[in-house]
Amino acid sequence: MISNKELGAIYTTERTIFRTFAPDKNNVKLRLFKDALSLESKEYNMRKDNDGVFEVEVLGDLDEYFYTYIVENEFEVTDPYSIASSINSNRSCVIDLSKTNPEGFLEHPEPPIINPTDSIIYELHVKDFTSHSTSNIKNKASLSGMTENNTSYNGYKTGLDHLSELGITHVHLMPVFDYLTVKEDREFTFDDDNYNWGYDPELYNTIEGSLTLYPDEPKKRIYEFKEAVMAFHKRGIKVVLDVVYNHTFRGKTSNFNVLATNYYFRQWPDGSFSNGSGCGNEFDSQKPMARKFIIDSLKYWVNEFRVDGFRFDLMALIDIDTIELAVKELRELKPDILIYGEPWMADRTPLPSNKTTSKGTQSKASFALFNDNFRNAIKGDNDGYSLGFAQGNLDEKRNTETGIAGSIFYDEARIGFTQKARETINYVNSHDNLILQDKLLKVFPQKTEEEIRTYNKFIHSILFLSQGIPFIHSGNEFLRSKNGHHNTYNAPLSINAVDWSLKEKNIDVFNYIKDLIEFRKSHSAFRLDNGEEIRDRLKFFDHVEYCPTIAYTIKENGNYILVVHNANSTPCLLTYQILKKHIVEKYKDEFKDMTVDLIFDEHGIVRNNTNLNHANGVQTQAISTYAYKVKTIR
Known about the structure:
Blueprint: E1 8-11, E2 15-21, E3 28-33, E4 42-45, E5 47-48, E6 53-59, E7 66-71, E8 75-77, E9 92-93, E10 121-124, H1 126-131, E11 152-153, E12 156-157, H2 159-166, E13 170-173, E14 177-179, E15 201-207, H3 218-234, E16 238-243, H4 255-259, H5 288-305, E17 309-312, H6 320-333, E18 338-341, H7 362-365, E19 368-370, H8 372-379, H9 397-404, E20 409-411, E21 414-415, E22 424-426, H10 436-443, H11 449-464, E23 469-473, H12 493-496, H13 501-505, H14 507-522, H15 531-537, E24 538-540, E25 549-556, E26 559-566, E27 572-574, H16 576-587, E28 593-601, E29 604-605, E30 618-620, E31 624-633
Parallel strand pairs: 10-13, 10-23, 13-16, 16-17, 17-18, 18-19, 19-22, 22-23
Antiparallel strand pairs: 1-2, 2-6, 3-4, 3-7, 5-6, 7-8, 7-9, 11-12, 14-15, 20-21, 24-25, 25-26, 26-31, 27-30, 28-29, 28-31
């Protein structure tokens, strides 16, 4: 059964039409309240159509009226299509969206269209990013705090100014839609245990009240998020929303299941809910009205809030047909919309394996997937003691090279899962698992602070100088720690809040990563996309004087960029004879002589002329990345 009708509360100043899908129910009523706390209400019988949709029209201007649905005279639930709600998600709210736009919101210019591989993603949680006293943000723990200008700690930029300074292109906001396990009342905002990442969805199209200054005022919630989107856009930063359509926090008692029993959730043959999400249920994206909900929701966020992308939690559980349709319809709204997700699930699922959105399925629709193969190859496993190439594990050299080449099929020794580099999200940690600093402290408890900083820089250099889309989690750029906690989804704010004093303490690491971003932006060689072009222009050295290094050249504008990632504890030398032989054999480029200029080293971009002497070769310091510009002379 499917209906193409618009669902939810369809508002005009003269009337509001309420529609909800409840195919197996005989009696659904609308209960209407004048305010969020009123005990007085008026009930309206809803008429059921052949498509399973119940509908009622109520005359008059219902802007900011609250409502629920009474199902079979027994259960009272909110509207799954709610675009606003009372505090703590108890009642849905009718909203005149035309009254929620900040001045200039509809007209403000969005950041220019960019190619996917030009993207640089920065993941953050609004509460983490704005709450700490060192942020010096006035409106802490709020979307409004994300819009503040000229915030700093001891002269070092924080908040929005920090993001502009760093040079990222996309901010990835961890869930800002309504979730259930955090008290939304402002008085509880800074209670240490009133915290959650937000992967416990309740109302998918409603702004989470705990991240706003006025959680009890539905219009202001929407207004505040629109202000944040506009503030990012004015800085040239696109906005990606973290979406969690794979499960709901409540299963059998959710509004979905009360309205349409056992329709929206996958089940095993015995009738029990499947649990591929690890959260008690799975949203059945293959059901026509479930698929419609997901796509309607995504399009609502783009049309109403002008967002620029989506990150899908446990994307493998959303069937590939739904994802392909969503990508198609979203790209019609915004051609460069960025879509990516996790190509895995938490547990078994009845979704057939050929329908899961997993590695290899992304190439037809050209969306991106998190690349855990590359992640583990660089730095080892997430929470354990294993080491990656960056810590000297040469068993991971080929896997790291595969990631450097954009995880395409590069050759028989380097086989990835993509056809184009735009299909891989390259990262070393996200909000899940140990943050990089804590992983390094765990595997290297005897290393000095300076040595740990060196490894941080080295790992990020591999990340940013690889083909694909780089992604970092907030605070990586100045060695943020979560005190060794690997899963802080509901840990205290004292653990999750970003301590901005670390930026001052580790400003050299910040400046290095800032330089990596600038360097990547200034060289198209690191932003290739097509697999054939990557194979043609990027060539690996077979070995470099037996050092544990990865070395490669990328052809750019008739010259070459040479990159050497030295994972050895001592310097490594690459002779000019080896370099010349490499260029001649791999590119069939005959030349008389060449000049070699150092353009990036362990401190960042080299801004002075550093033409090297042929007799010395190029020497890379221990645990560091060097890049050179090689110009051939014919």
